[in-house]
Design a protein that fits this description.
Blueprint: H1 33-46, E1 51-58, E2 61-67, H2 71-81, E3 93-95, E4 102-104, H3 106-127
Antiparallel strand pairs: 1-2, 3-4
Helix pairs in contact: 1-2
Bound molecules: zinc ion.
């Protein structure tokens, strides 16, 4: 039996849409957990029946795709993610370690660069390429 969400047409293939932000805490790095908790509270205040279609990181920032809650509610939290390390929650900035946009603190930027360097070394080893 499908739950019917007011204002949503169940024939349009949007799926069950039963969940809210807490079911998606694991979809992005743990450093953004506090942002997600506050976004959930704000979304509930705006619409207690809101639903999530997706919570993810894109181009280094948090993206909240919600049904029943407008961008005026979610935009400030998405903006805040660009100054918050996705891994640890400390102050961070949008960076590009290894060619991939991420919002990280200085410490996790160094850690990420080391991970990327190790991956490149491993790839070269597997391909039999000698670096020097
Ligand atoms: Zn960090």
């Amino acid at each position: 039996m499908q739950e019917v969400i007011p204002g949503l047409d169940p024939e349009r293939g949007l799926g069950p849409l039963r969940d809210q932000i807490p079911e998606h805490y694991g979809d992005v790095g743990g450093g953004w957990r506090d942002i997600l908790e506050r976004a959930h509270a704000a979304a509930l205040e705006s619409n207690p029946d809101y639903r999530v279609t997706q919570v993810k990181e894109k181009f280094g920032g948090l993206r909240l795709y919600l049904v029943g809650v407008g961008g005026a509610v979610t935009d400030p939290f998405e903006q805040e993610s660009y100054t918050t390390c996705e891994r640890c929650g400390k102050p961070g900035a949008l960076r590009r370690p290894g060619g991939w946009y991420l919002t990280l603190c200085a410490e996790h930027t160094i850690a990420r660069e080391a991970e990327v360097a190790a991956q490149v070394d491993e790839m070269n080893r597997l391909l039999g390429i000698d670096e020097d």
